[in-house]
Design a protein that fits this description.
Blueprint: H1 3-17, H2 21-24, E1 29-36, H3 42-51, H4 60-63, H5 69-74, E2 81-87, H6 103-116, E3 119-125, H7 133-142, E4 147-153, H8 160-171, E5 176-181, H9 188-202, E6 210-213, H10 217-223, E7 230-235, H11 244-253, H12 260-263, E8 270-279, E9 283-292, E10 294-296, E11 300-304, E12 311-321, E13 324-326, E14 328-330, E15 334-339, H13 343-346, E16 354-356, E17 365-372, E18 385-390, E19 393-406, E20 432-439, E21 451-455, E22 459-469, E23 477-478
Length: 479
């Protein structure tokens, strides 16, 4: 379809509903990350929420949304996937007629939500098993989540992975909603014990949330404007349906936190490339998030940076939101773009790149204020190597300099023995510091103010980029 055709189709949709699809899926979209220990029922809960089909206790609900054969066989999610939940103006869930779980039904449901929903909730299903923790960290880092559902199996005490997930959400400043699953048939004394242990985790210094049990819609009204300090706790069963209406009402009622559509639409274009596909008959398609600005079809843009720091010049052939062709995407949209690139150029693209209207020199070194989380002993010194996450970017980096170190009481660490005896500062758990990182493999597009998280097997520290080291000059462009 031509650019004019896409614009006319988008205009027709605006005429029918009074809002464009871009408005529905940006200004009215709440992004919710779903995390929790393995077997807590994350995929089952999402399947029940989006289809309104109750689970049979043997994996029926989760089979409606799982994408891969190995996930269906094991019942464990290993990839990051998103599902749309749409609400009408009165809070009723939008349901599409047909056979749930098929690709055709999923496409129809997303198109229906894009056109008719008054509130759209994007549920991001993240892996719960410890061996997939790096995938979960990446999903939370790039997801721009407004809230997080932290699922806990009510029939078992919360595990160390529950604490990891709570700390991860706290590190990114994401308010949490705790969901106690499988409450049907759970003994009262076990449920009480689980609630007490979850409350203790929420009150821990690294999380600092006050648990608040949701029993009625009045409780929901009480907590919706206090999500920064309060963590609602909802008990649900996907088999009997207990608590599901309350959880839907919570998701419908919580306010949108991230205001990309309002605050960043006038800024220069910044599209974050999260995945890359080769579609027969279309060519190269990238999926990702419009972090700032707006982009119309036919515009000349630059994709990169490549390994040598250069950018590829290309043109946007088409854009899709929720599988619907649109003429323009704006800040806050999860969009797919078809780019005009040759066969050899396509091989150079990778997840973690950006699409810009005006190229900016990528960054190899940057300075960040970091906090090393408490727990397992981790001593950071010069030449310490770790995996760094900055939004959708993940790459190994090395600490080249420790500029300043303070402990949690904001005193210089050197007063408390914070060095190795050779005059070199080290950063230990519970300490804050200002350090310089250097990417090991290639330069990346990052900016001051972006959140950074670094890990090995588990999260070791969090921080904010305070300075980027580049020459402020335009990098080379490949046509």
């Amino acid at each position: 379809m031509t650019t004019a055709g896409a614009k006319s189709k988008d205009q027709a949709i605006r005429t029918e509903t009074g809002r464009s699809i871009a408005d529905n899926l940006s200004a009215r979209n709440i992004r919710v990350a779903v995390v929790g220990n393995v077997d807590a029922g994350k995929s089952t809960l999402i399947g029940t929420l989006t289809t309104q089909i109750r689970d049979d206790g043997r994996g029926k609900a989760r089979s409606l949304i799982m994408r891969h054969a190995h996930e269906l066989e094991t019942g464990r999610t290993s990839t990051v996937s998103s599902n749309l939940l749409g609400f009408k103006e009165n809070g009723d869930t939008i349901v599409c007629p047909g056979t749930a779980g098929t690709k055709k039904h999923r496409v129809k449901l997303e198109e229906l939500i894009g056109r008719e929903a008054d509130r759209v909730v994007t549920l991001t299903d993240l892996a719960g098993h410890e061996k997939y923790l790096k995938t979960t960290i990446y999903g939370v880092s790039k997801g721009f989540a407004d809230y997080a559902l932290v699922l806990v199996n009510s029939r078992q005490p919360p595990t160390h992975m529950t604490l990891h997930h709570l700390n991860l959400c706290s590190a990114f400043g994401i308010p949490v909603i705790v969901v106690l699953t499988k409450i049907d048939g759970c003994p009262k004394h076990v449920l009480k014990s689980t609630k007490e242990e979850v409350a203790a985790m929420l009150r821990s210094p690294d999380v600092s949330k006050r648990p608040y049990t949701i029993r009625s819609e009045h409780d929901i009204e009480t907590v919706t404007d206090k999500m920064g300090a309060v963590a609602p706790v909802v008990g649900v069963s996907c088999v009997t349906g207990d608590g599901m209406d309350l959880l839907r009402r919570v998701l419908f009622s919580v306010p949108k936190r991230r205001r990309h559509h309002e605050k960043k639409i006038s800024k220069p274009l910044e599209y974050l490339v999260e995945d890359i596909f080769n579609v027969p008959g279309t060519g190269l398609v990238v999926s990702g998030f419009v972090n700032a600005g707006r982009l119309a079809l036919g515009e000349a843009v630059f994709a990169g940076p490549l390994d040598d720091g250069s950018f590829l010049k290309t043109t946007v052939k088409s854009a899709h939101l929720a599988r619907t062709l649109v003429g323009e995407v704006v800040a806050g949209d999860d969009a797919c773009l078809a780019l005009s690139l040759g066969k050899e150029q396509r091989k150079k693209l990778r997840p973690g790149m950006v699409v810009l209207r005006d190229v900016v020199e990528p960054v190899r070194k940057f300075e960040a204020e970091i906090y090393v989380v408490k727990g397992e002993g981790t001593t950071i010194r010069e030449n310490y190597t770790t995996l760094v996450h900055v939004l959708h970017v993940r790459q190994a980096a090395r600490v080249t300099d420790i500029v300043e170190v303070v402990d949690y009481r904001h005193f210089p660490v050197s007063r408390f023995g914070g060095n190795l005896g050779d005059g070199k500062d080290v950063v230990r758990p519970g300490c804050k510091a200002r350090v310089t990182f250097e990417f090991l493999h290639r330069p990346e597009h990052i900016r001051e103010g972006m959140r950074v998280i670094f890990r090995d097997s588990h999260v070791r520290g969090i921080g904010v980029i305070t300075e980027v080291h580049n020459g402020k000059k335009a990098p080379p462009v490949q046509n």
